Every structure is written in C-alpha cells, then in structure tokens.
Amino acid sequence: MSSDSPADQPCTCIALRRAARSMTAIYDAALRPAALRITQFSILRILARLGPLPVTRLAEEAALDRSTMGRNLDPLERRGLVRLDPDPADRRARIAALTEAGAAAIAAALPHWRAAQAEIDARLAPGALASLAALAQHP
C-alpha cells in the first residue's frame, strides 16, 4: 500500500473533533474558578445578548440539541443563574431568562474566558478561525 492511500491519510473529521475537545478542555479549565463550564457560560452569554428565549430556540442558538440544552440548564437553574418559566403561548414550552445572579456570573467568569480565548488565539494560525467558522456554515 502506498503512503498516498486514503488509509494512510489522517481523517480531518477526527482531527477536528480532537481539537474541539482540547479547546473545550482549555475553556473548562479556565472557567473552573467561576464554577462554570464553557457550554454553560455560552448559554448565559446568549441569554444576556438576546434576552429571554424559548428553550428550543436557545438550543438552536447554542448549536445544541434540545435534550442537551435541558441537561445544561438544570444546574444553571438550581444555582439561580437562569429562570425557566412556562411560555404563555404554549404552556408545554419553557422560556429561559438570565437572572441578576447569572449576569454577575458572566462578569465574574469573563476574565477567565478572555484568558482561555487568548491562549487558543495564540495557538491558531492566522485565518484558521475564519476557515473553521466557514466550515460551520455548511448545511
């Protein structure tokens, strides 16, 4: 078998998954003093930016499936960082809203997030983030 065979080439998908897990670990470690994981921090920031949202829409904004969003919201609600209320238009649905404690948690976590952001930015080649973002836009 030649070294140019597909079996000898690294799988781009696996490499990107490993990179994503590594980056998640960097953010999670940086946010540990704020007692947040990167997914939770991102959810709080989405709510700060967009205001109260139906959980399904919040999941779309965070690029998570609905059940994963629920698992991420539960501890945030228990800590009083988000409030979940019934949707007046559909009592089966819930609306997620950032609380004052959630806004304070964002403020406390922001310096840690910025440090992780700087570390990752230093590791990325110029233009790499733009290329990855363009990949994320593919249907």
From TrEMBL:
Lineage summary: Bacteria, Pseudomonadati, Pseudomonadota, Alphaproteobacteria, Hyphomicrobiales
Protein origin, superkingdom: Bacteria
InterPro entries linked to this entry: HTH_MarR-typ (IPR000835), MarR/SlyA-like (IPR039422), Tscrpt_reg_MarR-type_CS (IPR023187), WH-like_DNA-bd_sf (IPR036388), WH_DNA-bd_sf (IPR036390)
Domain HTH marR-type: 9-139
Name of the featured protein: HTH-type transcriptional repressor NicR
Record-linked PANTHER family: TRANSCRIPTIONAL REGULATOR, MARR FAMILY, TRANSCRIPTIONAL REPRESSOR PROTEIN-RELATED
4Fe-4S found in the keyword field: no
Molecular function per GO: DNA binding; DNA-binding transcription factor activity
Assigned keywords, A-Z: DNA-binding, Transcription, Transcription regulation
GO biological process, one term: response to stress
This protein's record includes keyword NAD: no
